[in-house]
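Materials and Methods. Structural model of Methyltransferase domain-containing protein. The 343-residue sequence of Methyltransferase domain-containing protein from Pochonia chlamydosporia 170 was retrieved and submitted for structure prediction as follows.
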Amino acid sequence: MDPPWRQQVDRFCYQYQQLETNLDYPQDEFLCLEEVQEDIYKRVFCDDVSNYGPPNRYRIKILKELLSRIESSIDDWDKYAVSDELMSTLSVLLSTPKSPEALWAQKKCYVTYHLSLLEPETQEKQIAQHPSITLFENRNLIAAGGTTGLRTWEAALQLGQYLCQNPSLVAGKRILELGTGTGYPSILCVKHLRAAHAIASDGSDDVINNLPDNLFLNNLQDSSKITPMDIKWGHALVGTEDEKWNGGQPVDIVLGADITYDQRVIPALVATLFDLFGLYPNVEVYISATERNAATFSAFLNVCNERGLSVEKLHFEVPPQSRQHGPFYDDQLAIHLCRVSNT
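The predicted structure was written out as tokens:
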């Protein structure tokens, strides 16, 4: 049986590994316990787990707050103490030269998303570990700036949760992801949901060039089950030199997360969807769209209608952030999960 503090410590560690801004620290009655401090140290602060952990600025900020809370939680210094390992870690971090804050905000870092809807996986040593996806991304990127494909957005996390709830949608299927960005949905399908194959496509050279890093982080660097591909929306899928697109391989499912954010590219996106329906009449298309403004999403609906494509909104209940156990994302964003069909 798990100790009473387990769920709170798990939540804190998962939020930390996802580089959340506001973490839920365990209650004082647990923080003062030696076993709680040791568990937190071994899971997120010791040297053995720091290779793909958060950047030092983030680690320092969180560790300072954690130690302050631990000290405040102790009402009997003869009975309780502050972890020497945590204190030593903070000292080492503080002595490490820091990069300028402006530069740090532009740097990519390792972010781990825990998949709480999936069952723990048993590894070779028979130790159960919760499924997760680790990505190298720019966590501080804003939606309006630069290449949006260099970070994972909420729409991708929500689409991933929907697929985790409905794994049969992709199990054994061949997936095409449009606008893959960091590759989160494609990696999820291949690594955890038993998809037969995934094409992680994007029109950005920067995104395609960064995908191998994220495949490596998820032990997919040598996998034949996932293929990066350059697809520019609105361009013919079959060129003069290609008799059949994708070597004639089938596509069962098309996925897209946060690919309707720019009204200017929607006609090209819908044109590509229309072409895919022409190549694969039975293909199923699922799109997770953040409604940053009503006009942009309406434009997507209108262009689909003009091309004879119907858009069905699917029901997906987003738990409030207080009840999320990973991945964590904004429960106030208007995200539409849709199935697009060729009517």
